[in-house]
Design brief:
This protein has 16 helices and eight strands. It is an alpha/beta fold. Helix content is 51%, strand content 9%. It is elongated, with a radius of gyration of 33 Å. The protein has an eight-stranded mixed β-sheet with strand order 1-2-4-3-5-6-7-8, with helices on both faces. The model is unreliable at 1-48 (pLDDT under 50).
Length: 485
């Protein structure tokens, strides 16, 4: 060994070493410079870069959620399910694009894989915004498997590019949620197709101006009975009542906008609008009046609103445990078909959950006592996003509906049966039912002992009492004899 060899010393700048001695080159000790072995090979980062990337991941996901909600609420986005769903997807796409851009700009750990979900979600969103409903049906079959492929690819790439376990814990739950969404969405699409084949529509679809409503009439004789189901329900829940009434006269059932086989409407569906649509439906469906209206729960409000707007078209009425109109009605709220409808947009966003099967879970818990065919039709309808949205809208418009139903101040001497459940009613309910019976001088208030609000429609024995009340009104009209108290 040559004496005088200088030991290299490590310095702060990694390059400082002792000078050469006796012509021997200095020995330089340096820390290795980080080198990337390729686009997928990670390298060590300083703690500052790591912290920055963590905030970028979290901030990008939050920004995507906020952008999705802002886009869906934007007035320039058309008030249609396809358009609002497209706006949501574009917002989420923005979040993923931010992750890709910001991680490349501010860190040494670029997450270029984030462009895949950004492009996928943004592409689907733009298609829905540009083409709406025509492309919606096709995308329902395409997006679930495609999204699952994207999620698997995301996870593989993220494992290579995200070094920090904490940041993987931020993204992996999002990836798991997207995978669950893809599986649930695919299952729901298949099940809805199976339901459509198993439950073909009876009756006809009638254009009432901007959307079509389902109408099905059976039986023969006059006057025609028109049945109104309760809040959130479709015509099939009347599976015990309609056949019983059809044995004595003609009876028509229909689905309000967005329910059953009816198409959704773009206008708020309060009592006045529902009554107007029903009037148009009966006219264009060649169902001559005057009619006997029978409404259960919220359906009673719509029967009252119809009778107030078209008194000459109503010969009699049955209110089945009906929601009471406003006791002290105020002025009718202004209504504008072109006004901005924030509650409607919110309900449309919430209703997209039904496309992931959540509505189907709810439907399985109800309708068990109806005839099997009616039960299965009601369950299938309750699973759809359209019915969930229309149900939410119905309760949002409930205040307007009770005001509009109160416009009927009197029913003259036309036959009116008020039918009440004998159990499960809230305090004051009986008094409100008694008040409804005072609308006509030819009225009767009956209480079905042991019946509940729902069983007056869904249970065979209690529904028979409802059907009999309807036939009693028909008989009174035919004979001219007042109702038997």
């Amino acid at each position: 060994m040559v004496e005088g060899t200088v030991r290299a010393t490590r310095t702060d700048d990694w390059t400082r070493a002792a000078p050469a001695v006796h012509g021997i080159e200095p020995i330089v000790a340096t820390n290795p410079t980080p080198q990337s072995q390729g686009p997928d090979s990670p390298f060590r980062l300083g703690s500052g870069a790591r912290r920055h990337l963590g905030w970028i991941v979290l901030g990008s996901m939050a920004a995507g959620l906020l952008a999705a909600l802002a886009f869906a609420a934007a007035p320039f986005v058309p008030f249609r399910e396809g358009s609002i769903t497209g706006a949501l997807l574009c917002g989420f796409a923005l979040g993923w694009a931010l992750l890709a851009v910001l991680s490349a700009r501010f860190t040494e750990e670029p997450q270029r894989w984030a462009w895949a979900p950004a492009v996928f979600l943004g592409g689907c969103g733009l298609l829905l915004l540009l083409f709406g409903s025509p492309v919606h049906g096709v995308l329902n079959w395409v997006w679930p498997p495609a999204l699952l492929v994207v999620v698997v690819w995301m996870v593989v790439r993220a494992r290579r590019r995200l070094l920090s376990r904490s940041r993987r814990l931020l993204l992996y739950p999002v990836a798991a949620l997207l995978a669950l969404v893809s599986v649930a969405g695919g299952c729901e699409t298949v099940l809805e197709a199976v339901d459509a084949r198993a439950h073909p529509m009876a009756g006809q679809l009638v254009d009432v101006g901007g959307h079509r409503l389902h109408l099905d009439c059976t039986g023969s004789g006059s006057p025609t009975v028109v049945l109104e189901p309760g809040a959130g329900e479709m015509s099939s829940v009347l599976g015990w009542i309609a056949p019983a009434v059809a044995s004595g006269t003609r009876v028509c059932v229909y689905d309000r906008a967005g329910r059953g086989w009816s198409e959704p409407a773009d206008t708020p569906q309060d009592g006045a609008q529902i009554a107007a649509d029903l009037h148009t439906l009966l006219q264009r469906g060649n169902v001559p009046g005057p009619y006997v209206l029978a409404g259960h729960s919220f359906g009673g409000l719509y029967a009252l609103a119809f009778a107030a707007q078209y008194p000459d078209d109503v010969a009699g009425m049955v209110l089945v445990d009906s929601t009471a109109p406003a006791a002290h009605p105020g002025p009718a709220p202004p209504r504008s078909a072109g006004s901005y409808d924030l509650p409607g947009r919110v309900s449309m966003v919430i209703s997209t959950a039904a496309r992931l099967g959540l509505g189907r879970l709810y439907g399985q818990l109800d309708y068990g006592s109806l005839p099997p065919l009616s039960r299965d039709e009601a369950r299938a309808s309750s699973a759809t996003a359209s019915q969930l949205r229309s149900t939410i809208d119905e309760y949002v418009q409930g205040g307007s509906s009770v005001e509009e139903a109160a416009a009927l101040r009197g029913f003259g001497g036309k036959p009116l049966v008020v039918l009440s459940a004998g159990s499960g009613s809230a305090a004051g309910w009986s008094a409100a039912q008694n008040a409804l019976a005072t609308l006509s001088t030819n009225s009767v208030h009956r209480t079905v002992e042991g019946a509940t609000h729902a069983s007056l429609v869904s249970e065979k024995e209690d529904a028979a009492a409802t059907a009999q009340a309807i036939l009693d009104v028909v008989s009174s009209l035919r004979s001219g004899v007042p109702l038997d108290r």
